[in-house]
Amino acid sequence: MKENNQYRTGRHCVFELHAHLVFITKYRGAVFTNEHLRSLESIFRSVCEDFETELVEFNGEADHVHLLVNFPPKVSVSKLVNSLKGVSSRRLKQLHPELIKPAYMKNALWSPSYYAGSVGGAPISVIRHYIEQQTRPL
């Protein structure tokens, strides 16, 4: 999507829907390195493409990630989140086996909860700047 044309079109609609998503790790464990975050960004972009959704911005820290997504009205945010978390957990553990936890921790990467906020009231540039300013782990 181009910055100067902020509207997307569907068959019968014109839309501009953005959501700020935040996922935290299970038990808020500090597990991500910069390499893990790079892999996650790639995985999230792939899942977003499958949903005809655009990952506008991504960043994170050792224990959580922020995503800014532009999505069409036909996409349910809860289904998108479910797919983003499920696919990323599975693929990230395939790419980085050190993230596989012992059986007693149930091998969960993400907390079952998440934050989803509509960013229609705030300029996208403000949300984008906020996500860009999140620090990455060492």
UniProtKB/TrEMBL annotation:
GO terms for biological process: DNA transposition. It comes from the Bacteria. Pfam families: Y1_Tnp. This is IS200/IS605 family transposase. Residues 14-134 form the Transposase IS200-like domain. GO terms for molecular function: DNA binding; transposase activity. It comes from Nitrincola iocasae. Gene3D superfamilies: Transposase IS200-like. InterPro entries: Transposase_17 (IPR002686), Transposase_17_sf (IPR036515).
